[in-house]
Amino acid sequence: MPAPLDLDGLAKGAARPPSQAISRAERLESDDLTVVLGAFGRSDLDPLVRILVEKDFITKSKPLKESDAYKTGGGDHHRYIPQIVEEIRWWGSHDLKDASEPRSYRAVVAELCEKAEIPVTDTTSVFDMERLMVKKRVDAGEMGSSTLGTVAKAAAGFGLLRAIGVVTGPVGIGLTAAWTLWDMMGPNHKMTGQCVMAIAEARMRLWCAAMADDMEVVG
What we know:
Radius of gyration: 19 Å
């Protein structure tokens, strides 16, 4: 099992937005999610936006679908990319520990790799982390299975049953319920996992196409 990652350090490692002179492939290789999503087409952003707006469980006080940018965007996802990034970061953060500043996308992906026992380092790019996650799913035969189902209600229900049924006595119930509440306020890995896989699939596909285009130009 890989050594624990310095997620706080990773959170500070996001790259600055590149200049307009760089190629599309280079934009797609960026650690900055805003830059990456800006290189996506509208149809490439559709799956990610659906994950964020079609969920039917409790979310942040003002989710993407209730933001002014989304309501007035007319389906042009590029007009609310900052809100998309903000919500993904929110899902990957703890309500209390990260209240002042949600975790970066880099830290969100690094934690998913850590949970999946995928060895990465502080210098591993976000693009490479995503590709390692995709490779692990392919090797495990999980690609093609539905990843869009909502599971938060079931998880919450399990937590409450554990708090009530496993521990006896009012003190025990109170402590376990408090632990469950703290745990539920943490990152929602099911949600971030869906988002990251949607981003990884589109990013890899578009990057391959961009590299092929660049090779044709050079040739």
